[in-house]
Write a structure and sequence with these properties.
The protein has helices at residues 13-24, 58-63, 74-80, 120-128, 145-148, 163-167, 187-192, 194-214; strands spanning 5-10, 40-43, 48-53, 69-73, 84-89, 95-102, 113-117, 134-138, 154-159, 170-179, 181-186. By secondary structure, it is α/β, with parallel strands linked by helices.
């Protein structure tokens, strides 16, 4: 069995911040910082191998065992419910899952609520808790235009700064949950590589503690 810790990193700024934390936690891989187009990097001395993958695919790599651990947003974890262990909140990529609509929108509980979203399971679960009759419209692109064109009454989406909403005359009506990046682990990998994963968790906890102390 491969004795390295295989890590799926989300491409982009979040992944770069995550790597900085992992390196500080005792799992550096200097090659990853060099300008190139490689997607796989390893440092045998630190027993670690990193993969760059699309953020929404991290949970799949971890669930299927291609990676032992990875970092995925809480939204992805709840929406797709992968069979993984959630080990640690890294406090990165903080945002909110919200219900937003045009500023003059008024709720009418007697009619079906049309909800445009990229997160149908989260939206369905949220409104099921309210016993609300809804029609979910699954979209993949910028969904802010849906209520403007009359396709939906509201949208359920991630809100970071709210700037895009304001520029499109929309506003947040309800906050469903806070979102942040989480360390997740493959269930078999957690068992067979427990020592490495526990070392990573302890190192990351130390990094987080130092950041809070310095804040």
């Amino acid at each position: 069995m491969d004795d390295m810790l295989n890590v799926a990193l989300p491409k982009g700024r979040l992944g770069e911040k995550v790597y900085e934390m992992f390196a500080a936690a005792g799992f550096p891989c200097p090659e990853l910082l060099q300008p190139n187009r490689k997607l796989i990097f390893e440092n045998p001395e630190a027993n670690v191998r990193y993969y760059w993958v699309k953020p929404s695919d991290v949970a799949i790599y971890v669930e299927r065992g291609a990676a032992d651990v990875g970092v995925a947003g809480k939204d992805i974890i709840i929406e797709y419910a992968p069979e993984v262990y959630e080990l640690l909140d890294l406090g990165l990529g903080k945002c909110r899952m919200c219900v937003a609509a045009q500023k003059d929108f008024r709720e009418n509980p007697e009619r079906t609520l049309r909800v445009a979203t990229k997160f149908p399971h989260i939206a369905a679960g949220y409104y099921a808790g309210q016993s609300r009759d809804i029609d979910i419209i699954k979209l993949n692109g910028s969904i802010e235009v849906a209520p403007i064109l009359g396709l939906s009454d509201v949208i359920v989406d991630i809100v970071e700064t709210g700037t895009t909403l304001k520029e499109n005359n929309l506003e947040v009506f309800e906050t469903i949950m806070p979102i942040s990046a989480r360390l997740i682990a493959n269930k078999a990998g957690f068992r067979f590589k427990n020592e490495l994963i526990e070392k990573l968790c302890a190192g990351l906890a130390g990094v987080l503690g130092k950041e809070r102390a310095d804040a």
